[in-house]
Task: structure prediction
Amino acid sequence: MAPNASDDQTPAEPAVEPGPARRRAARYVVPVTVMGVAAATIGLVPAIASSGDPDLPDITAAQLIEKIAKSDVEQLSGTVKVTTDLGLPDLGGLESSLTSGALGQGGDGSSADPSAKLTELASGTHTLRVAADGPERQKLSLLDGSDEYSLIHNGKNVWGYDSKSDEVFHGTVDEQPGGERGEHQPPATPKDFAEEALKAVDDTTSVTVDGTAQVAGRDAYKLVVKPRQSGSTVGAISIAVDHETGMPLKFTLTPASGGAAVVDVGFTKVSFARPAASTFDFTPPEGAKVTEEGALEKQAERHAGKDSDRPGKAPKSEEDLGKGLDGMKVLGEGWNSVATFDTGDPGLPAGGTGSDLDGFLGSLGDQVKGEFGTGTVFSTRLVNALITEDGTVYVGAVTKDALVKAADGAK
Result:
């Protein structure tokens, strides 16, 4: 979770690729600045209910991190509870914008499209059912009363199914060498995030073992990660690590400002037995509306073309915004790292984001000034973003003052 502050290593590149993948990234632009880190954190590790403090052999922080790195769990099933409190207002308007204007679909997109549906995890409390059988088969189901949304990856096929609307999304992924994740796969195996935990062990980070816990009926160690630097919005990260397998079972992130956790994600039930092969089978229900991923891309392109002809609207496409993301740079080091990129538009990004989204962003913004000029800061309890008057974005898990300092230093 913590940034890698080593001077001799290049910061991780943003997950943006040319073509459709870049256009998908461009759809979010500002929403990503206020929700992206939380979304990534949700992917990190499931959070938990703990009971009792089991008596386990002593272990050092270095040994525990090594145990995580060596974990080879690829098969599991269980129930996960996710609670996210970024301090955002009701996301109803934002979700509407994301599934229409911000997604470039003009309201004609599929409610089963995972790029829209999974934004619900950025706020509130949710229950998930998860299952995995290696890098080629995963399933995640988001439960909402009697309704259910499922995202299934089985080989080359990716299916999203929204039972409430009876809509289906279908996409495909290329085979990934070495078990790497494809574009649509649910974010990561435990080992993926263990590697990120290892990157946190540098001179900007304090890492300690803080006793034991029982998570989803399993004995676990508690690893606590804290920034040594001032200016970060992160107070502490606590990870419960399974004593037997080395797999992270619980993730809790508390903010430097105090109060409830920003993200609390964890297993309430877990099994490391191989799920039945039928778990990952999916056939669209009879009568369900099926939308192919390529159709959504064409809708986005048509919508972008219409926007370019609208009076008073700059002919700025999602492709152009994607080029800005391609030029993303990282300023600073460690927990005070700030990502910056140029949206290609003056002020707030245009490109058909819609009035609902504009109103949402305006409700969060604070005007700031500095050597960089003037701009607007959008704040949450974890991630803050500064958008300057010339359309440059600075975003990170840092305070408002740290963002302004980064923008000043970049000029």
Residues 231 and 398 are 6 Å apart (CA to CA). Residues 20-280 form a domain with the outer membrane lipoprotein receptor (LolB), chain A fold (CATH 2.50.20.10). The chain has two domains: 20-280, 314-410.
